[in-house]
Specification:
The protein folds into two domains: 134 residues, Rossmann fold, CATH 3.40.50; 193 residues, Dihydrodipicolinate Reductase, domain 2 (2-Layer Sandwich). 35% of the residues lie in helices and 23% in strands. The chain is built from 13 helices and 14 strands. GO terms for molecular function: nucleotide binding.
């Protein structure tokens, strides 16, 4: 089967996330970027499309223009999947319109601004049965997939404790300046939703906790930090988690952890061992056992699971990075579109984004109600 024709919304000239998605889409030779809308200013979009050596007739003014003109093309030329890389508030209307027109969708997180919007997308996607991926990027790392496999196989026994931490310090230069914190879209509820820190990076940690353990979080108790009274959105927080079978965990997320860059760590402890992983050192998965020396598992070796090795593109000793992780997600989407069997967890589905939005809203609700336990909906 030929390459899947991919369109992109957003992700233009100055976008870090745009670079990540374009590299990921090309990594396994499964997608071909053919057009899209890269910027709200059409001239900028055209210029960027020219830089990517795309046909200028496929660089559209807006989403309406793209859908209308793509519909007139022969079936073997039409865009088949679209990546939504715009700010949060545009995710829902764009994804909804794409789903209603039969497109497969790859959407940045958080999925939407509200949980209700996410439920609407879920209903539409279930009716038309297209592929919908939410890019919780870190689930694509080979050693995270190894971690998931080992836990599922019972190699650390019954889970007793889950600890996920995501610390950054990037918002420090903005949050302490009244004018700057008032003028960034990340701290604008109209554009970002009700949460900054939990909505941006806390949702990654929440998704990861469920992904690697295979368990759902049933309840949350949150204590969030806004730092200034005129700041409407959290920039730091701690959330206690209760999973199925009353398994307990903790989620710590911060964007004011001074000096931290992208410190995302995942730790799961069972009654027969523990596993630890750090995003800044993604090649190492640490296995802990009582009375035994620490074991370090690395990607590319035969002792790893088939699922881990499938997402490993380099020989042992060569670093696997975030581009590879996102590339693995795009590969999983491609295989799903092409109707070939894939491992469960090959890409985060719309339901993962739906659960993420539920988590964000219930976490904020828990904090506002005086740090109380709140049940998550099924």
């Amino acid at each position: 089967m030929s390459k899947i024709r991919l369109g992109i919304l957003g992700g233009g000239e100055d976008s870090l996330i745009g670079i990540l998605h374009r590299v990921a889409a090309n990594m396994f030779d499964q997608f071909e970027i053919v057009g899209g809308v890269f910027d709200v200013q059409h001239e900028k979009s055209l210029k960027f499309g020219e830089k990517l050596q795309l046909d200028s007739s496929r660089i559209y003014k807006d989403l309406d223009d793209m859908i209308a003109k793509e519909a007139k093309l022969p079936e073997n030329q039409k865009i088949q999947a679209v990546s939504v890389l715009t700010p949060n508030f545009l995710h829902f209307p764009m994804a909804k319109q794409l789903l209603e027109n039969g497109y497969n969708v790859i959407c940045e997180k958080p999925l939407t601004i509200t949980y209700e919007e996410a439920k609407i997308l879920n209903e539409i996607q279930q009716k038309n049965n297209t592929i919908f991926a939410v890019t919780y990027t870190y689930t694509g790392y080979p050693m995270i997939r190894q971690m998931k496999t080992m836990i599922a196989n019972g190699e650390i026994g019954k889970i007793q404790k889950v600890d996920v931490q995501y610390y950054q310090g990037w918002i420090n230069p903005l949050i302490h300046d009244k004018e700057k914190r008032s003028n960034t879209w990340r701290l604008d509820p109209e554009k970002s939703g009700i949460s900054c820190c939990i909505g941006d990076i806390g949702t990654h940690a929440y998704n990861m906790a469920e992904y690697v353990t295979g368990l759902n979080v049933d309840k949350v108790l949150a204590d969030l930090n806004y730092l200034y009274e005129d700041n409407p959105m959290d920039i730091d927080g701690t959330v206690l988690l209760r999973f199925q079978e009353n398994i307990k965990g903790v989620l710590r997320a911060s964007q004011i952890a001074t000096g931290e860059e992208n410190n995302f760590t995942v730790q799961v402890y069972g009654d027969n061992g523990g596993l630890k992983w750090e995003q800044e050192n993604p090649n190492y998965l640490y296995l802990l056992k009582e009375g035994m020396a620490l074991q370090v598992l690395k990607p590319g070796h035969e002792y790893n699971s088939e699922f881990s090795l499938e997402g490993t593109k380099l020989p042992p000793g060569h670093p696997e990075g975030i581009f590879d992780s996102m590339g693995n997600i795009y590969y999983g989407v491609a295989m799903a579109i092409k109707d070939r069997s894939k491992h469960e967890g090959a890409y985060p589905k719309l339901n993962d984004g739906l659960r993420g939005m539920n988590f964000i809203e219930k976490t904020v609700d828990s904090h506002k109600k005086g740090n109380v336990w709140i049940n998550l909906e099924d």
